[in-house]
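note to self — DONT lose this again. spent like an hour looking for the file last time. sequence + predicted structure for the chain T wanted, 174 res
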Amino acid sequence: MNLCSGLFVAACILFSFCGGESCCAQGTLSIETLAEQARREYTAGKFSDAERDYRELTKRDPSNVEGYVYLGQSLFRLEKYSESVRPYEKARELERNGSKLTSDQHRILVDQLVMAYGMSGEMKKARSLLDDAIQKDPEYPLNYYNLACVSGGWPTHPCTGTIEAASTLRLFEG
């Protein structure tokens, strides 16, 4: 076996040992490859791996709003509620500064941030965020449901209201 053949065999073994993924440090993957790998990990429920890769992605691409949203999602799914606030807030900052989210993505971001604040015991911040969300998006019923949860003592008491009941709260908001 010549040197080229030996190196090729070694590379193939290394590649298959890694399951087809690069064994090199995350820093050597392209941003696109790293983002795709993190998405696959998140989708597969490998939230610790997704957290690691989304941290690296947002470090290398600090303007990646989706990276911050999914870093927050990964942390939230790992029940690291307080930790999830920072990437969610960074995503909101990027959105305010021109990064685009669809209406649905924005709503999900706000919902998750409200829940992260609530689960962290930051009820005033959750309430303030909801007041702003209701003012900007008064037709979105989940904002009223979340408001009922925050107003009802959540997270220590489970939120037992319904979206229909919660949406009536807007009649009494001043």
